[in-house]
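Entry 0007
Protein: NitT/TauT family transport system substrate-binding protein
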Amino acid sequence: MTSLYGRTVFAAAFAALTVSAMPFSAANAGDMRVAFGDLPGIESIQTLAAIERTKERGVNVELIVLNDEDLATQAIVGGQADVGIGAPYTLIQKVGVPIRIFAQISTQRFFPVVNSEFYKTWKDLDGQDVAVQARGSGTEAVMTLMAKNNGIKLGTISYVPGSEVRRNALIQGTLKASIVDAANRRALEAEAPGKFIVLPVENVSASDETVFATADYLKNNAADVDILVEELMKTGREITENPAIAVEFRNKYKLLPDLGAGADAEITEYYKETADAGSLALNGGGAEAAADDFAFFTAAGQIEGDPVSLKVGDFWDVAAIDRAVAKLGKK
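Output (structure tokens):
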């Protein structure tokens, strides 16, 4: 693997050690420790900008970067972080972790990719190995559901955190079938034209990233939570209206400096595509988003039950969304 992969693995190990070593003390009022269950990339600029703007409004946010949603959830449950970023439906229902989603950031835009030398259709993946982000992630759910819809059974599912890491592995040939986000799909098309095929994904509008916390934290830190939710909504609305503003956010807050200035054009194109797809949550999600998530994650087998009968309150706390929409208006 490339040196990027090595750095990523090291970062993951360091993050895991950092979390395990963190004290189990609660954050003070005005403090917010955010556990990011992925490796930040182009697709994270909206979230990172919202966090910076939350800081500007007086909330002392500490960002803890983890490359696994499970670790982010464990950090919340263990009291080592206050707010997690991910989509923890499986853990809420099947493990019973005492957390609630309080806003949606974005919906899924994942792209199953195969090396065209070996595979060309979903049927070709019958019995074949694939790689996804993490156990219980949206990437795993998409692959599982599409396999089910196409009447095949996947082989071994490997967990390889980081869409960019999976893209590099596809380029190098160490992975032949995986799933990436829109930014890395575009990079694959540019770096190796014709080498990869993007398999079709139908009717998926479930959550990609949400923010979640314990009920106690949401109750005891409502003012801080409201500021974060408002800034997530505002950045989502501003980028959807003008995708080029994502570059302004990046430059203003010095986000993802390792990418260099050459990434600005790619960032604009990525967010234009994202805006056109309506992927950023303009009103925080809530009951409507939960209904889409219930349909998707039950079909994928990651949560159980009749999606119509599942209760929003068992997974979500929509109070902060309601307050933000009342203040900002509905889009």
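Curator remark: The two ends are 44 Å apart (CA to CA). The chain has 13 helices and ten strands.
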